[in-house]
Amino acid sequence: MGRFILPTSTVLCLALVRTALAAIGPVTDLTISNADISPDGYTRAAVLANGVFPGPLISGNVGDNFQINVIDKLSNETMLKSTTVHWHGIYQRGTNWADGPAFVNQCPISTGNSFLYDFTVTGQAGTFWYHSHLSTQYCDGLRGPMVVYDPDDPHADLYDVDDESTIITLSDWYHTAAKLGPAFPLGPDSVLINGLGRYTGGNASDLAVVNVEQGKRYRFRLISLSCDPNFVFSIDGHNMTVIEVDAVNHEPLTVDSIQIYAGQRYSFVLTADQAIDNYWIRALPSGGTVSFDGGVNSAILRYSGAAEVEPTTERSMSTSPLVETDLVPLDNPAAPGDPVVGGVDYAMSLNFSFNGSNFFVNGATFVPPTVPVLLQILSGASATTDLLPSGSVFTLPSNSTIELSFPITAANAPGAPHPFHLHGHTFSVVRSAGSSEYNYDNPVRRDVVNTGTAGDNVTIRFTTDNPGPWFLHCHIDFHLEAGFAVVFSEDTGEVSSFTTPSTAWSDLCPTYDALTASDL
Predict the structure, then answer these.
(1) pTM of the model
(2) From residue 168, how far is each of 65, 80, 95, 164 by CA, in Å?
């Protein structure tokens, strides 16, 4: 870790930055700082990556070694001065120490210090994202897109354009810092598409414009950077052909709307085959303002040659919405294990409960330990009973098939549907929300799943081929803060030989533990 002095001019420059920067990576600095921004016309302090919201696109190619030096220049203790960054969807095979979750895989980076995340993306390509994984900090702004391109993309013949201009991020935005607002907000103040939006009662601030040229085919990468709501996404007058789900290639599926949950990603091909005009892009949130009046929850699809005015297009009823069970992986579609319920080496039901302030999984609410789980393992702890937090860490055998089920009742998980994310893996969803059928032949494969509502028993399968402690948690960040998580310690005995953290990683905890309360 390195020390530095924060010049006043840097703060002023960061505060003035307003638009997204060009893509960076795979070797880059990522500076985390505070500045005032007004993405929906309302000015508030935020936590920013390289001075912008969303953070800059981080990109590379499959097989690249990413070296991302995160520099912590945070100064606003309300939104925490420490930080971590998680690279959502990256397997981190052999580099569990670089996954990012605070107190699971590392101690936070302290203000005035830096930390190098050094990992290689092998056998993965597609749409990812990055965000703070410390408390609710990403709700205050530290979130951005990440893409790993595949020069041999099997879907390459379906589209003409795939670059920075075809990334669409969806974010919920709050006018109050997460630590100062309610524990469970009723809804965002606004929805931002590519970092811009409007709020009810506000001015007609700028909206994001996505430019297309008539006749071309575009691979849009839709990323939910959400802290809480899901969104129903659509583009007036246009269908969307989904080809990728959470960085897994799938068979093309044409839809006219996509319900996307926190942390999920979809690539879809849009053919610009309509009249030269402006068309509304819509992202209706599940909470907050649930209309499009005055351009809220909206952006603009603009054909080259169209006037620079707001669209007048009308929203039509969705007749072919995305249904998760219609998605089929392009390669190796079968789920691991035998094609029967429980037909795996290790099956587990995750039973939820809520006491009014905290969520519980199998009787325990997740309370971050003072010593990261990975450090506990590297220090010699291996038995489930020895790993903290007690009741929230489960050991999984190596090279085994695993089945997890998420039964939802009318009362066990308020705030449903809950999107659950498993770190270190993708998984096959053998039973989806809204369905009682099991599909072992060709189920959707992804890393965030909607666990549904009362009566659902969403079930996923994966294989333990990646030693280390991996977080499984609700991706509604306010719910994670309330303990809605567990840790799976995979092949615990092999972790020390499989993962060798950097010296800088070992320095994180002593530095963090020495901080005063005002610098945490």
Answers:
(1) 0.96
(2) 25, 28, 29, 9
Residue among 423, 462, 478, 488 flagged as catalytic: 423
The reported pLDDT for the residue numbered 22 is 85
Give the three-state DSSP class for 407: strand
CB of 169 within 8 A of CB of 141? no
Q: What is the mean pLDDT of residues 357-363?
A: 98
Active site residue 479: yes
d(CA 367, CA 70): 25
The question of whether 425 is a catalytic residue gets the answer no
Structure confidence at residue 124 (pLDDT): 98
The verdict on whether omega for the bond into residue 54 sits within 30 degrees of 0, i.e. cis, is yes
Instruction: Indicate whether 342 pLDDT > 80.
Output: yes
* Residue 378: alpha-carbon gap to chain centroid: 28
Is 53 considered catalytic here?
A: no
Question: Does residue 332 contact residue 318 with C-beta atoms inside 8 Å?
Answer: no
What is the per-residue pLDDT across 386-426, written as a single tens digit (0 to 9) for each? 999 999 999 999 999 999 999 999 999 999 999 999 999 99
Is 107 among the residues known to form the active site?
no
Beta carbons within 8 Å of 222's beta carbon, 6+ residues apart: 127, 168, 170, 233, 258, 260, 265, 266, 267, 268
Q: Model confidence over 468-497: pLDDT tens digits?
A: 999 999 999 999 999 999 999 999 999 999
- Which is catalytic among the residues 131, 155, 250, 425? 131
Q: Is 475 a catalytic residue?
A: yes
Q: Is 484 a catalytic residue?
A: yes
**Residue 155 annotated as catalytic:** no
* SS3 call for 162: coil
131 is a catalytic site residue: yes
* Residue 411 structure tokens: 């009362």
| Choice among 37, 66, 71, 86 that is catalytic | 86
Instruction: With CA atoms as reference, report the closest residue to 196 among 51, 24, 42.
Output: 42
- Asked about 250 being catalytic, the answer comes back as no
Residue that has been written with the tokens 């670089």 in this structure: 98
Active site includes 175? no
Assign 435 to helix, strand or coil: coil
List the catalytic residue out of 238, 250, 421, 425: 421
Which residues lie below 8 Å from residue 244, measured CB to CB, with a gap of 6+?
126, 127, 155, 221, 250, 265, 266, 267
Nearest CA among 159, 164, 142, 141 for reference residue 30: 142
Amino acid letter, 199: Y
Does the annotation mark 421 as catalytic? yes
Sheet strands side by side (includes 86-88): 58-61, 143-149, 126-131, 86-88
- Catalytic hit among 88, 238, 250, 425: 88
Distance of CA 165 to the CA centre of its chain: 20
Out of 109, 473, 478, 488, the active site residue is 473
From the list 418, 427, 471, 478, the catalytic residue is: 418
Phi and psi (nearest 5°) for 230?
A: -90, 165
- Of 64, 88, 393, 392, the residue nearest 265 (C-alpha): 88
